[in-house]
Amino acid sequence: xxxxxxxxxxxxxxxxxxxxxxxxxxxxxxxxxxxxxxxxxxxxxxxxxxxxxxxxxxxxxxxxxxxxxxxxxxxxxxxxxxxxxxxxxxxxxxxxxxxxxxxxxxxxxxxxxxxxxxxxxxxxxxxxxxxxxxxxxxxxxxxxxxxxxxxxxxxxxxxxxxxxxxxxxxxxxxxxxxxxxxxxxxxxxxxxxxxxxxxxxxxxxxxxxxxxxxxxxxxxxxxxxxxxx
Length: 229
Prior knowledge:
Radius of gyration: 21 Å
Distance between the termini: 8 Å
CATH topology of the largest domain: Rossmann fold
């Protein structure tokens, strides 16, 4: 996958705060997502798999603590920096116990927040992250077996997804039809190479701007297919 600046999800019920943070983080080269309620923030975190979340604590209905607790219960170990106007030690301890990575008290300087974000993103060690791949306006979430185009989920059959995943995992490599039959279908129900062609056509119709002139799933004549993303 081509490298890209981290995506930061900002969750705060103060719209002006959200807009200001988005503007500043984008200026620094980061990609941003934003939500002004805990419920919306939780949904975005699950669906979009950001690299880091800036999470306000004091929000109506679903607090930052509730969102953080729900994320960890779902097994999502995305880094989280808590934002709060309260500076009590008990708040800091609770946030850290729930799995927060850092804690910033309002009002804070943008310089300090940027430094903390960079520090958290640099921390070593494995994290349970979504396995994702993106090409064009398409995002593939391997763990959830989900594919989104322009933000909208695209329904794939089991074999369509398996084929797309295999091509993506071997991007840049020419893969023969026989190899695809062996690795994706396992020769179950005695499919033919025509089966591969049919599934490739369906994928192109769903994801290529012009299926007749594909930009991503290419035909290598006399050999097979190659994913160019």
